[in-house]
Structures are given as C-alpha cells and as structure tokens.
C-alpha cells in the first residue's frame, strides 16, 4: 500500500529547543518558496509568535522564576497552534508530493530518517571584534542545521553564560566583555532531530 506523505502536526511533545528549531526551519524553508505563495497563517505572524516564545524561553532560563516559566509555557501554545494551521495548509497544497512537502521544512512521515542529530561542531575560532571588549566567533557550518547555540565564560569559572542562538556560522559578535581577560566559548548545533554535543572550548584574551 502506497504511503501518503504529509507534514506532521504534532508539536506538543517537542522540547522547547526542538520546537524553536522546527519553527525557525519551517519559516526559513517557506520564505520565498514558489510552492507556497499564500501561507496560512502568514509567515510574519508565525515569526512574531516564535520571537515571543524565544524571548520568554530565554527569560525563564535566565531567571527561572515560576512566573517566567508560566509565561513561557503560555507563549508556546499559540506558536504550536499556528504551526498546526500552517501544516494543514502545506498538506492541502502538496497533496502528498514528497519533494514539495520536504521543501516546506516540516517534519514528515516520509523523511525516512534522512536528517540525523547534528554532529559535534568543529572548527571553532575566536578573533578580535571591531571594538575593544568584543570577540568574533566563527565555526564550521553543518548541513540540515538552521540554528546553533553558544555560551561563553571567563576561563576558570564554573558557570556559563545564558545560551545565545544564531543561524550563522560566521561573524557572531560576543559583547560586552572585559578587556585583557581570557574567555572560553563553546558551540553546539540543533535541528528537528535533536541537539548535538558541545564543541571543544576555544579561548582567547579580549583586547
């Protein structure tokens, strides 16, 4: 019996990071995609919901209060609802055509395990930013990854900074930092299948 391919609409069991990566992947894949000319809801609306969820997630992790966690959980619900609605739209347009479906960025029942958990990030390099108290972070790009996370700390300290997200493997600026101090940085990659291992630490003295 032939499989009818479709975008999966279940998001409630996804971890917060996984949901954020999935939403960002979908928005990036569907933007200017000729197959999806009138997405419902509009991608700008989904992006606003993602930005709100991302901000509240960062606040909850930074402060960890019950109120911040509740606000984060509340902001997740409309994002899940928008993604479900967008999945229905994608399924109605693609009508089971796998290559078109995959171009949407949605996880599908026909991906066949082609996307795997990211590898450990390699090639992490630090350099001077344009101003004193800045570092530039670069690392090797991976396939099937739309989001990376990085953290930094003064070398010798136990606690890392909060996690910062970026979609670029080049020219990430870390600031403000204390001049003449040595910092260390680590990076990891995320996709819809999970989170990769943290990279080896890269260190440098900030000018």
Automatic annotation (TrEMBL):
SUPFAM superfamilies, A to Z: Fibronectin type III
UniProt cross-references to InterPro entries, sorted A to Z: FN3_dom (IPR003961), FN3_sf (IPR036116), Ig-like_fold (IPR013783)
Domain Fibronectin type-III: 117-207
Protein's name in the database: Fibronectin type-III domain-containing protein
Organism whose genome encodes this protein: Sphingobacterium gobiense
């Amino acid at each position: 019996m032939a499989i009818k391919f479709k975008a999966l609409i279940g998001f409630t069991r996804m971890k917060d990071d996984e949901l954020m990566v999935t939403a960002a992947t979908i928005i990036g894949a569907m933007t200017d995609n000729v197959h999806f000319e009138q997405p419902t809801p509009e991608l700008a609306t989904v992006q606003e919901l993602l930005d709100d969820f991302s901000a509240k997630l960062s606040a909850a992790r930074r402060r960890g209060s019950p109120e911040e966690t509740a606000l984060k959980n509340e902001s997740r619900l409309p994002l899940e609802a928008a993604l479900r609605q967008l999945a229905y739209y994608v399924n109605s347009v693609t009508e089971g055509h796998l290559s078109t479906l995959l171009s949407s960025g949605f996880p599908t029942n026909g991906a066949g395990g082609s996307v795997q958990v990211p590898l450990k990030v390699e090639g992490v390099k630090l350099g001077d930013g344009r101003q004193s108290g800045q570092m530039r972070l670069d690392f090797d790009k991976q396939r099937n990854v739309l989001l990376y996370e990085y953290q930094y700390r003064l070398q010798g300290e136990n606690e890392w900074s909060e996690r910062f997200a970026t979609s670029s493997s080049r020219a990430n600026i870390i600031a403000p930092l204390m001049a003449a101090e040595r910092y260390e940085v680590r990076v990891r990659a995320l996709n819809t299948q999970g989170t990769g291992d943290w990279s080896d630490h890269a260190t440098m003295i900030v000018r």
